[in-house]
Specification:
The protein is α+β, with helices and mostly antiparallel strands. Helices cover 29% and strands 19% of the residues. The chain has a single domain, classed as 2-Layer Sandwich (HIT family, subunit A), CATH 3.30.428. It is built from three helices and five strands. A five-stranded antiparallel beta sheet has the order 1-2-3-5-4, with helices on one face. Strand 1 (17-21) and strand 2 (24-28) form a beta hairpin.
């Protein structure tokens, strides 16, 4: 088994596990963006979010919802940024779905999700809407 996250779940690699729920495990990120930066992962190896089946997705996000408030409160944070890098082009470095819960404080120097994109020309939103509706029709 070469996936580092699968090895954490199996206990082969030590980690600061903070919670285990049915179908999901949460542990501290070893390269944290802030104190309390937690990764929540599905217990089954799945590389991309869209490859999760419905019960796995429910278990993963049930854990994220359950943990986000207590993590924030335990550290006295003002909020949290919750994000997923889904695929190599997004910066996903471990090909195992993982949700970041990053506690945030006012004036911590971090930005919003909008800060990771530069301004630029975009397609007309109605055109993009038409393309997406056509792709999603019947799914």
């Amino acid at each position: 088994m070469s996936c580092v996250f699968c090895r954490i779940i199996s206990g082969e690699i030590p980690a600061q596990v903070v919670a285990r729920d049915e179908g999901a495990t949460a542990f501290l990120d070893l390269s944290p963006l802030a104190d309390g930066h937690v990764l929540v992962i599905p217990d089954r190896h799945v590389a991309r979010l869209d490859d999760l089946d419905a019960p796995e997705a429910e278990a993963l996000f049930r854990s994220v919802v359950r943990l986000s408030g207590p993590i924030r409160d335990a550290l006295g944070a003002d909020g949290s940024t919750i994000g997923i890098n889904n695929g190599e082009a997004t910066g996903q470095t471990v090909p195992h779905v993982h949700v970041h819960i990053v506690p945030r404080w006012k004036k911590d120097g971090g930005g919003s999700i909008h800060s990771i994109f530069s301004a630029g020309n975009r397609r007309d939103v109605s055109e993009v809407g038409d393309v997406l509706r056509a792709a999603l029709d019947g799914r």
